[in-house]
């Protein structure tokens, strides 16, 4: 089963995904895409780690999440990808010419996954159009990718102030 969890910054997306994973009784693979590039991010990452059970498999992978999924996919496993917006940011920074290809590859991969995947991403489509060309490209890629993901997944959860709302459900 594929589930997409979207919401604003600090809306409770990660906590909700972690709760869903704990309820599943599957082996959890937490794929963290955030790079600790400053003290604030180091602090946030530290707090995220404190919340999670020690027996979960934590894999910090800012670029090649598809390799991790392929390596460990199994119907008795659940993956949390936290989060797509940071993954796109990282790829846009380090691999700007391949980001659209990587998005297509992720979509293709998700069609054949045996395990359960909880994909977290930040809603970016409710703000103003950025004045900067790179920021507009980033917003455009994320917006398009979100639409492709939500078309594919079984469930879409929208979070606001820690409250999940199911906005898509396929049986």
Briefly summarize what is shown.
Helices cover 44% and strands 25% of the residues. The protein is α/β, with parallel strands linked by helices. It has a 7-stranded mixed sheet, with helices on both faces.
Instruction: Report the CATH architecture.
Output: 3-Layer(aba) Sandwich
What is the count of DSSP helices, taking H or I runs of 4+ residues?
6
CATH fold label: Rossmann fold
Which blocks of ≥5 consecutive residues have pLDDT under 50? none
Beta-strand portion reads 15-25%
Organism: Candidatus Johnevansia muelleri
Catalytic activity: adenosylcob(III)inamide + GTP = adenosylcob(III)inamide phosphate + GDP + H(+); adenosylcob(III)inamide phosphate + GTP + H(+) = adenosylcob(III)inamide-GDP + diphosphate; adenosylcob(III)inamide + ATP = adenosylcob(III)inamide phosphate + ADP + H(+)
Family: Belongs to the CobU/CobP family.
Keywords: ATP-binding, Cobalamin biosynthesis, GTP-binding, Kinase, Nucleotide-binding, Nucleotidyltransferase, Transferase
General description of the model:
- By secondary structure, the protein is an alpha/beta fold.
- The chain has one domain: 3-Layer(aba) Sandwich (Rossmann fold).
- The chain has six helices and seven strands.
- Strands 3-2-4-5-1-6-7 form a seven-stranded mixed sheet, with helices on both faces.
- Helix 5 (99-110) runs parallel beside helix 6.
- The longest helix is centred in the C-terminal third of the chain and has 20 residues, at 133-152.
- It starts with a strand and ends with a strand.
